[in-house]
Specification:
six-stranded antiparallel sheet; 30% strand; 26% helix; 10 strands; alpha+beta; Phosphorylase Kinase, domain 1; two-stranded antiparallel sheet
Length: 182
């Protein structure tokens, strides 16, 4: 999929502007609707993942979206779903990811209180979210969790035991950067 390609979701056509990211579950594209609104179109994929087992990815996305909203985690609004094409449309949150901020040497301290509040809400709901900093976008002083993935709570995957390792220029962050360059 490249810029200019078109994707249809629920009868509405979106022009792909660019790839935003590729994760375990799909490809996310910045796209534009016919009326000029920008949105994220996520195309579910079925590529193998050595460290994660999937069932019905679309059902999981929708279920997790509901669980995150119920837990009070700020996520982009789900705008449309096309189960047959395995696509969903999300509200676009425009801003840098926390990963980009860390990589570029910008201060992320203002967002640590917010992510810790999200972590507390997630834990209270029996959930972990994916605290990797590519999953958080900063906009107008607020961070959004832009992924819909969540899992049952486990201490080893909470923010303080795992996620915080990637929210500054730690050895883990530097290793990840080097792996991306090769």
């Amino acid at each position: 999929m490249k810029g200019g390609d078109r994707l249809t979701v629920g009868g509405e056509t979106y022009a792909v502007l660019r790839l935003l990211g590729h994760g375990k579950g799909g490809y996310s594209y910045l796209a534009e609707a016919g009326d000029g609104r920008q949105a994220v179109v996520k195309q579910i994929h079925h590529e193998p993942c050595s460290y994660y087992t999937f069932g019905d990815k679309m059902a999981a996305e929708l279920h997790d979206y509901d669980r995150l909203r119920a837990a009070g985690i700020p996520v982009p609004k789900l705008l449309a779903v096309d189960r047959a094409a395995e696509r969903l449309v999300k509200e676009y949150v425009d801003g840098p990811t926390v990963f980009e901020l860390v990589r570029d040497g910008a201060a992320v301290e203002p967002y640590l209180e917010q992510v810790r509040a999200m972590a507390a809400r997630a834990r209270a709901a029996g959930l972990n979210i994916d605290y990797f900093p590519t999953n958080f976008v900063a906009q107008d002083g607020r961070i959004w969790y832009i992924d819909y993935e969540c899992n049952e709570y486990m201490d080893q995957w909470n923010f303080e035991n795992w996620g915080v390792r990637y929210w500054s220029r730690t050895p883990e962050f530097e290793t990840y950067l080097k792996e991306r360059e090769t």
